[in-house]
C-alpha cells in the first residue's frame, strides 16, 4: 500500500485542480492523479478563453454560486499575482422571448445584478461590430468577462503543490471501489487507498462511475479563430465584449446560439463558436475525431457574416473540445449516494462550468472535510440520477 493520504482526487482538469488546491490548503494530505499532462488539450479545459458572467440565463439558482466564484477568482488572482478574470463586459443577445435574453433578465432582476438593455440603435452606437436586427435586444453585463482555462489550471496545480499536494500526471486510474474502510483505487497498476476520494473526470465520467452509473454523455464541440476583415484592434477587450447570441430558428427547431471573445494577445484570429452543437452525437473521449473540417468552419463563418460581419474572414485555426453533459444540462455535484460521504462527485459541467471552477473547488473541499457545505447545491445533487452502488 502507498503513503497515507486523506483524499485522492481523480482528474486534474478544471475542477480537479481547483479541488486539490482547496483540499491541500485546508491541510488535507492530497494525492491528485491525471491521465495526461498538466493543462492538456484533450478534455474540456483548453482553448485560451472561457466566458464568465453572473446574470445566468440557464437558471437563477446558479447566481449565488457565481457571486462566490467571483470573490474566489479575485482571491486566486491575488494568490498568483496575475489578473485571471478580465472584466470586459458581456452581451446576451436575441429576441426578447429567447431563453438567453429572458433568462438573463430574470436572473439579473431576481438577484439585483447591474445590467443594461440595449436595442439595435443603442448597441450600434456602443459596439458597431454587431449587426443587431430591430426585433432583437442585447443585455449588457459590465462585470462579466473571460478567464484563461489553461492559466487557471496551472495556477491551481502550482498552489496545490505548494500547499503540499502530491500530483501524478500521465497516470490513468483504472479502477475505483468504495469500501467500508474508504476508497480503493488502481492507478498506473498501483493499488491506492484513502478514506475519501473525488471523481472529477469530465468527459471520462462513465469510466469510473460504472456502465449503469450517471447519464453523462461526452459531446464533441468545435471552436474557431477567424481573421477579421477589419483591423484586429477593433476586437480588443476595451472595444469588444464577450457575447452569446441566440439566433432565431423555426418553431420547434433546435436552439442555435453563437458565442465569442475579444482578440487575445498573440492570437492570430478572433475566437467564436456554436454554444451547443446539438447535431453532434455522443462520443467516446478516447476515440473522438479531433480534427475540424472546412465545412464546420464555413458553417460558423456563414453565421458570423449575418451577425458580426467584420469577423467573417478566413478561419485561421480550430480546436475540438468536449462537453460532458447531463440530460438536464445541470451539473452533478455532491456526495455519491450510498458512499456514506466517502466519494464526492464533480461531474457533468457541460459547456458552462468553467466560470464556477473556484467555488466548485471550495464546495468539494467542504464535502470531503466537513461532510456538508453552506452553498445551496441541492439542485445539482447526484441523487437525481443516482444508481446506488
Ligand atoms: C468548447 C467549450 C467551450 C466552453 N466555454 C465555456 C465558457 O465560455 N464558460 C464556461 O463557464 N464554461 C465553458 N465550457 C465548459 C467548461 O470548460 C467545462 O465545464 C470545464 O472545463 C469542465 O472541467 P472538468 O474538470 O469537469 O473537465 P476536464 O478539465 O476535462 O477535467 C477532467 C480531467 O480528468 C482526467 N481524467 C479522466 N479520467 C481519468 C482517469 N481515469 N484517470 C486519471 N485522469 C482522468 C482527464 O484527463 C481530465 O484532465 C466550455 C467547454 C467547452 C468544451
How would you sum up this structure, described in words?
With 389 residues, the chain is of the alpha+beta class. The chain folds into 2 domains: 7-46 and 150-211 and 328-385, FAD/NAD(P)-binding domain, CATH 3.50.50; 88-144 and 217-325, D-Amino Acid Oxidase, subunit A, domain 2 (D-Amino Acid Oxidase, Chain A, domain 2, 2-Layer Sandwich). It has helices at 14-24, 63-80, 99-110, 120-126, 149-162, 205-209, 294-305, 357-369; strands spanning 7-10, 30-33, 50-52, 90-94, 116-118, 137-141, 145-147, 166-168, 173-179, 182-187, 190-194, 196-199, 217-226, 242-247, 256-260, 270-274, 282-283, 315-325, 332-335, 343-347. Strands 4, 5, 6, 13, 14, 15, 16, 17 and 18 form a 9-stranded mixed beta sheet that branches. Strands 8-2-1-12-20-19 form a 6-stranded mixed beta sheet, covered by helices on one side. Strands 9-10-11 form a 3-stranded antiparallel beta sheet. Strand 14 (242-247) and strand 15 form a beta hairpin. Helix 1 crosses helix 8 (357-369). The model has no long low-confidence stretch (mean pLDDT 95). The chain binds flavin-adenine dinucleotide. Residues 10-16, 33-36, 43-45, 47, 50-51, 172-173, 200-204, 207-208, 221, 223, 321-323, 349-355 line the site of flavin-adenine dinucleotide. Flavin-adenine dinucleotide is lined by residues 10-16, 33-36, 43-45, 47, 50-51, 172-173, 200-204, 207-208, 221, 223, 321-323, 349-355.
Amino acid at each position: 500500500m502507498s503513503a497515507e493520504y486523506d483524499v485522492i482526487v481523480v482528474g486534474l482538469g478544471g475542477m480537479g485542480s481547483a479541488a486539490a488546491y482547496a483540499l491541500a490548503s485546508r491541510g488535507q494530505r492530497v494525492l491528485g492523479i491525471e491521465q495526461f499532462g498538466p493543462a492538456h488539450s484533450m478534455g474540456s479545459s483548453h482553448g485560451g478563453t472561457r466566458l464568465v458572467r453572473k446574470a445566468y440565463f440557464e437558471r437563477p439558482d446558479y447566481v449565488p454560486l457565481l457571486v462566490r466564484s467571483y470573490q474566489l477568482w479575485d482571491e486566486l488572482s491575488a494568490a498568483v499575482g496575475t489578473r485571471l478574470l478580465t472584466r470586459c463586459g458581456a452581451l446576451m443577445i436575441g429576441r426578447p422571448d429567447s431563453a438567453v435574453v429572458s433568462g438573463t433578465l430574470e436572473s439579473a432582476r431576481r438577484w439585483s445584478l447591474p445590467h443594461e438593455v440595449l436595442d439595435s440603435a443603442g448597441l450600434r452606437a456602443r459596439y458597431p461590430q454587431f449587426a443587431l436586427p430591430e426585433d432583437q435586444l442585447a443585455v449588457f453585463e459590465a462585470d462579466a468577462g473571460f478567464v484563461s482555462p489553461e492559466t487557471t489550471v496551472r495556477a491551481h496545480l502550482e498552489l496545490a503543490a505548494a500547499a503540499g499536494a502530491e500530483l501524478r500526471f500521465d497516470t490513468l486510474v483504472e479502477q475505483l471501489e468504495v469500501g467500508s474502510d474508504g476508497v480503493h483505487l488502481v492507478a498506473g497498476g498501483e493499488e491506492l487507498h484513502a478514506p475519501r476520494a473525488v471523481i472529477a473526470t469530465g468527459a471520462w465520467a462513465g469510466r469510473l462511475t460504472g456502465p449503469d452509473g450517471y447519464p453523462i454523455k461526452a459531446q464533441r464541440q468545435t471552436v474557431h479563430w477567424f481573421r477579421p476583415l477589419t483591423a484586429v484592434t477593433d476586437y480588443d477587450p476595451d472595444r469588444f465584449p464577450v457575447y452569446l447570441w441566440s439566433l432565431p430558428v423555426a418553431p420547434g427547431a433546435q436552439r442555435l446560439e453563437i458565442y465569442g471573445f475579444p482578440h487575445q494577445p498573440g492570437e492570430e484570429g478572433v475566437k467564436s463558436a456554436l454554444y451547443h452543437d446539438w447535431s453532434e452525437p455522443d462520443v467516446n473521449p478516447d476515440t473522438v475525431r479531433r480534427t475540424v473540417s472546412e465545412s464546420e468552419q464555413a458553417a460558423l463563418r456563414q453565421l458570423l457574416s449575418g451577425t458580426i460581419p467584420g469577423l467573417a474572414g478566413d478561419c485561421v485555426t480550430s480546436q475540438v473540445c468536449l462537453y460532458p453533459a447531463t440530460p438536464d444540462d445541470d451539473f452533478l455535484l455532491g456526495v455519491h449516494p450510498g458512499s456514506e460521504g466517502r466519494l464526492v462527485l464533480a461531474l457533468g459541467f457541460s459547456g458552462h462550468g468553467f466560470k464556477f471552477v473556484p467555488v466548485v473547488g471550495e464546495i468539494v473541499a467542504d464535502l470531503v472535510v466537513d461532510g456538508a457545505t453552506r452553498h445551496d447545491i441541492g439542485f445539482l445533487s447526484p441523487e437525481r440520477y443516482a444508481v446506488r452502488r
